[in-house]
Specification:
heterodimer; A: alpha/beta; Rossmann fold; 2 domains; 4-stranded antiparallel sheet; 11 helices; about 40% helix; B: mainly alpha; MetI-like fold
């Protein structure tokens, strides 16, 4: 694989590519995100876990810029991106190159009318207009990187399977060469064997490119598989944070234990989980 | 999708049972459009050549559809009249579609105060019957095709803009729009390249239905003597001119343009509704 390093701008200093401090966001009277802070090392992988409504998706959307925070800061490569997004083209493209996102549902995150090749060409035309002649080669390279062939380049999204579509979405995000890739439940809509393929693919891409991952998921198996560090969120607050292996092996917060116990396995009793949840 | 096209109840009852009706209507429209395009070569006589000695003559070898009260050949006038009769509604539909899509997209995409302003303004137009608006404008600017076309275009604009707005609102919520925003595309680019092409089939189906209504409205204006200038061949004008012929017991030169108007309007409705149904059934 060539020309896949040099992802995004160099960090101002140290090994932190993404730093989130004191994030707050309320929807009406509901405090969706309350004082959330975490940081992501360059080339690292951070998981945010929690059940539905724990505020993890809102946090991700604030990081990407699809949602505005009431308070707090999001720094990417030493630049603050939590303020009002600029309206200028340069600023817009700069923000896009800082953080890219892979959405949950690959059936909805691609325009049904645009072929795979054109999806990638659009991104390249927008971000690298000066290397226009190079785009055909780059499209092939990106498809190759996510394990798709030239046969898929001409296909429309509806002609592809869920796993293939998610690969397209990943390629589209990589085309921009972001510093951070936010994956919002990126494998939740796929079946288990395809999940494993995509997770392996993501691990390979991280090793090759050094892009930092922010993994939003409710699936502890995914967290174990692809993240170095993990943040556990509940009711909009961070209840536990630390290296993934430590947190999963020795959870200190009752909620983390509950999440771990909630994973179905032999001898698993949902009534106990419900009782523990009520007690919490 | 819960978005329905605006259909007037009278004509909406004509349902397409099989595809034969649709094909028949499509064929009929193709013939009418061809006749209009090739009118100078196809019309057997000068549509304005007056022959008073031959007035109100029945069908003959020289005049297969007879002549009117001034001795003008009905067949030639029908064929040449197709031009103005189709050109007017085309202008109405083009104006209302382009302006309506711009207004509806701006309102749906931006939302907020702009949405309120544009939506309330276009709803105000609903309060005016289109024909009344057209008569008002014609009475100010005098006869001619441009004034009634713009007036009716204004009157039809809210139908298109309301439909576009609701479609854009639904489209804006689709995750791929957010994906393009994250990629750094501007709102205008996303609208032009992704939102509009996705909603275009529905809007065009509505415009096709509108074409039929605009045709009937313009024919009505011509019949009232307000639309096209007196000598221009036009179906609505022909019905108006044929009044005296009907009183003289010779209705052919008035009935034929009536039939042409009705058939064309029905054909546009059937085709437009068929397209709308097809779009609604299309898997995305």
């Amino acid at each position: 694989m060539t020309d896949t390093t040099g992802a995004g701008p160099e960090p101002a200093g140290g090994g932190t590519v993404l730093e989130v401090t004191g994030l707050h966001r309320a929807f009406g009277s509901v405090q969706a995100v309350h004082d959330v802070s975490f940081s992501l090392a360059r080339g690292g992988s951070l998981g945010i876990v929690g059940e539905s409504g724990s505020g993890k998706t809102t946090t991700a959307r604030i990081v990407v810029g699809l949602e505005r925070a009431d308070a707090g800061r999001v720094m990417v490569c030493g630049r603050d991106r939590s303020g009002q997004p600029g309206r200028g083209r340069t600023q817009r493209l700069e923000r896009a190159r800082e953080v890219q996102m892979v959405f949950q549902d690959p059936f909805l995150s691609l325009d049904p009318r645009v072929s795979v090749g054109n999806v990638l060409r659009e991104a390249l035309r927008l971000h690298f207009p000066e290397t226009r002649v190079d785009h055909a080669r780059r499209v092939g390279e990106l498809l190759d990187q996510v394990g798709l062939g030239s046969r898929e380049a001409a296909a429309l999204p509806r002609q592809l399977s869920g796993g293939q579509r998610q690969r397209v979405a990943i390629a589209r995000a990589l085309a921009v060469k972001p510093a951070v890739l936010v994956l919002d439940e990126a494998v939740a809509a796929l079946d288990v064997s395809v999940q494993a393929q995509i997770l392996n693919l993501l691990a390979d891409i991280r090793r090759d490119t050094g892009i930092g991952y922010l993994f939003i998921t409710h699936d502890l198996g995914v967290v174990r598989c692809v993240t170095d560090d993990v943040v556990v969120m509940r009711h909009g607050r961070v209840v536990e944070a630390g290296p993934t292996a430590d947190v999963l092996a020795d959870p200190r917060h009752a909620y983390t234990r509950l999440l771990l116990d909630s994973v179905p396995r032999p001898g698993w009793n949902p009534k106990h989980i419900a009782a523990a949840r009520r007690a919490l | 999708m819960t978005i329905a096209l605006v259909r007037r109840p009278g004509l909406a009852r004509i349902r397409t049972r099989g595809s034969w009706l649709y094909l028949l209507c499509l064929g009929f429209l193709a013939v009418v459009v061809l006749l209009a395009l090739l009118a100078p070569w196809l019309s057997p006589h000068d549509p304005n050549a007056v022959d008073l000695g031959n007035a109100l003559a029945g069908p003959s070898a020289a005049h297969p559809l007879g002549v009117d009260g001034s001795g003008r050949d009905t067949a030639s006038r029908l064929i040449t009249g197709a031009r103005t009769s189709l050109l007017g509604p085309l202008g109405v539909v083009l104006f209302s579609t382009v302006a309506g899509v711009i207004v509806g997209t701006a309102a749906g995409w931006r939302g907020g105060w702009l949405d309120s302003l544009l939506s309330r303004t276009t709803e105000l137009v609903f309060a005016f019957p289109g024909l009344l608006l057209a008569i008002l404008i014609v009475s100010i600017y005098g006869e001619g095709l441009i004034a009634p076309v713009i007036a009716l275009g204004m009157a039809y604009l809210p139908y298109v803009s309301r439909l576009t707005r609701s479609l854009v609102l639904a489209e804006r919520e689709r995750p791929f729009v957010e994906a393009y925003q994250v990629q750094g595309h501007s709102g205008l680019q996303i609208c032009l390249r992704h939102v509009l092409p996705n909603i275009a089939p529905v809007v065009l189906a509505q415009s096709t239905v509108n074409f039929g209504y605009a045709l009937i409205d313009l024919a009505g204006l011509s019949f009232l003597g307000l639309g096209v200038p007196a000598l221009t061949p036009d179906w609505g004008r022909m019905v108006f001119d044929g009044e005296s012929a009907i009183q003289a017991g010779y209705p052919l030169c008035a009935i034929l343009p009536c039939a042409a108007i009705v058939l064309t309007v029905v054909a546009f409705n059937v085709v437009g509704e068929r397209w709308a149904d097809r779009v609604a059934r299309r898997d995305r």
